[in-house]
Amino acid sequence: MFKIFSRKVRKDKRKDYKVLFMDENELSYKIIGAAIEIHKTIGPGLLESAYENALAFDLRNLGFNVKQQVAMPFIYKGIKQDVGYRIDLLVNNKVIIEVNQSKS
Q1: 87, 79, 94: which is closest to 28 by C-alpha?
Q2: 40: exposed, middle or buried (C-beta count within 10 Å: 0-12, 13-18, 19+)?
Q3: What is the pLDDT at residue 18?
Q4: How far apart are CA 88 and CA 72, in angstroms?
Q5: Helix, strand or coil for residue 57?
Q6: How much of the chain exceeds pLDDT 90, in percent?
Q7: What mean pLDDT comes out for the span 39-57?
């Protein structure tokens, strides 16, 4: 359903102060937890866009910086190719998530 490709904590007064300074392992753990919660809540069978938007919503509510449908350049032999790759979700500029629909 979801594929995840893979700073030290600075305290401040906010409850979710750790979110911006998590390393990739901590970040991945939280993302997987959110994905599992979505799967438990809405189950299989929806379009990828539904899961992508639900996950982006939940991650933003957890305090993460989430960008959707980010253009990704493809460079071959030093030449930028116009192939239109898109990253489904980019979390805190550290973790790329590719949302895939699973068949049940």
Answers
A1: 94
A2: exposed
A3: 60
A4: 10
A5: helix
A6: 45
A7: 92
Segments making up each domain of the chain, as ranges:
2-99
- Please give the Cα distance from 56 to 75 (Å, whole number): 28
8-22 pLDDT per residue, tens = 434 444 545 566 677
pLDDT at 104 over 80: no
Q: Burial level of 39, CB count in 10 A (0-12/13-18/19+)?
A: middle
Q: How many CA atoms lie within 13 A of 9 on its CB side?
A: 12
- Nearest by Cα to 3 from 96, 103, 104, 102: 96
CA pseudo-torsion sign 61, 93, 23, 74 = positive
The structure's pTM equals: 0.74
Q: Answer whether 31's CB lies under 8 Å from 59's CB.
A: yes
What letter represents residue 46's amino acid? L
